[in-house]
Amino acid sequence: MYGLVNRALQQLVCTHHGTRTWDTIRAKAGVADEVFVRMDSYSDEVTHRLVAAASEVLGAPADELLKGFGRYWMRYTMVEGYGALLSDLGPTLHDALAALDAMHARVALLYPALKPPSFRISGVTDDRISLHYHSERCGFAPMIIGLVEGLGERYRVRVEVRHAVAKGEGCDHDRFDIRILGRADSVPDQAVS
Ligand code: 1DX
Question: Which pLDDT value is given to residue 113?
Answer without folding.
Answer: 96
